[in-house]
Amino acid sequence: MTSTDQQPLGSPFSAATTAEEVVAGHDLSGRTAVVTGGYSGLGLETVRTLAAAGARVVVPARRPDAARAVLREVAACEVVPMDLADLDGVRSAAARIRDRFDRLDLLLAVAGVMATPERRTGPGWEGQLAANHFGHFVLACELYPLLAAAGGARVVVNSSAGHALTGIRWHDPHFRTGYDKWLAYGQSKTANALFAVHLDALGRGDGVRAFALHPGRIITGLQREMTRREQIDRGWVDEHGTVVGAGFKTPSQGAATGLWAATSPLLDGRGGLYLEDCEVARAVAPDTPMDDGGVRAHAVDPEAAARLWDLSVAATGATPIVVDPGRDFR
């Protein structure tokens, strides 16, 4: 997949489309989905919408009791304890899911952190890269046999327009030489996009297709590490916390692109694409203002995606996805 493949498909939806509108008419009975971050913000909207369409939904949760309380009225939903920053815990959660199900139709990586103070996890990894990328990377690798067994699974990874801030800092991905919370966030979002590119390249022979997306500008719990003053200064909210920024979406509108990626027949036979506003995003120049949308070439570059994959396997010890050289990749 390259930036030249980033061409809109003529989707009937838009930035104003809601989660319910995207899934209307889809019967997901018999489908199983895993949604990280599924008990707040965009993840909660995603879970509610999938369940209402008939899917069974599994929600890995760092705070399982809180998740169960929020989701108690959602039918066909179960919670599995998991902290994305704890890779042993990610493996344990994946093992529980493998014991419970024999196939997985959808994996939606919605959970994330943004602009956090400097934190180290594992062997000194930068915290945003660890939570946003490494945790989801290991989860997808551990669940891959279930995805392959579905014969048409989709993996959907929430990236962000923040990917425009930086590519992968190959010389210093863990910010050993000086921490910048926004560059760290931007790198993790580029990693999310590149992860989808290479997962799709590996998985398409098994019918596993992967997409990354920008959900849009939404005020949710993702901003919990930012002060009110920071959000006011950026023009996002007023002194009372009311959203005043132009172009902000509701949580339902923010969840729509991920659900479109998971269900749209327009994406059949496609993958490795970066999406926004329920459409394939256009490739844009590096100096394009971030709020103008589009995807930068560094976030869909297949060579960078393969390099990041190798780095991630080496760092995490994730179970490699082995590609049969005799498979038909058409």
UniProtKB/TrEMBL annotation:
Any Pfam family the entry gives:
adh_short
Cite a single GO MF annotation. Answer: oxidoreductase activity
Instruction: Give the matching InterPro entries.
Output: NAD(P)-bd_dom_sf (IPR036291), SDR_fam (IPR002347)
* Keywords of this entry: Oxidoreductase
Family under the similarity heading = Belongs to the short-chain dehydrogenases/reductases (SDR) family.
Protein name, per record: Probable oxidoreductase
The beginning of the lineage is:
Bacteria, Bacillati, Actinomycetota, Actinomycetes, Kitasatosporales
